[in-house]
Amino acid sequence: MPEAEPRNIVEKFFATVGNMLETPVVWVREKIVEPNQKSYPWYHQKYRRVPTIDECYTDDDVCIFEANAQYKRDKQVESEILHILRERFENCTLYEAPDHLEKCTHLWREYEDAATNWFIKYGDLGAYHNAKSAYMKQKHRMIWERRHGPVGSGVKKDTDQAPAEN
């Protein structure tokens, strides 16, 4: 919508003064600030991915430190995602008060899946854990699943015993 033409001398004066103040500011913003801004669609800083703990040599302290820092950042991000999913479910139950069992079940399932995955990765590690302890937990879980089937399924593969002959 184009600006209306000033009706009298006072409006022309204020429009001129306003343009004198606004024009340099707009020029600096468009020519200097915006071309030099980092533009990324995230609300948090996006760090460069470093090698994980399984890719580090045992005597490479810098690599191990970076892997631990990345592990802690990933845990914080995943914990915040879990917190947001929990808040969404709670807000849905408050908003959809009598019918929340039907209308909010998809949010509950998403939250439960995310909480299960978070616990698989970070749960039962204790207060002072690092990337190596999480990696060892993952390794032990894979060995368990290879020997006994998926955790929590109650299925145990009987590969060691020969089939009974009748």
Automatic annotation (TrEMBL):
UniProt-annotated location(s): Mitochondrion inner membrane
GO cellular component: mitochondrial inner membrane; respiratory chain complex I
Membrane topology term: Peripheral membrane protein
Listed name of the protein: NADH dehydrogenase [ubiquinone] 1 beta subcomplex subunit 10
Taxonomic path: Eukaryota, Metazoa, Ecdysozoa, Arthropoda, Hexapoda
Organism whose genome encodes this protein: Acanthoscelides obtectus
InterPro entries found in the cross-reference section: NADH_UbQ_OxRdtase_su10, NDUFB10
UniProt KW keywords: Electron transport, Membrane, Mitochondrion, Mitochondrion inner membrane, Respiratory chain, Transport
Span of the signal peptide: none
Family label: Belongs to the complex I NDUFB10 subunit family.
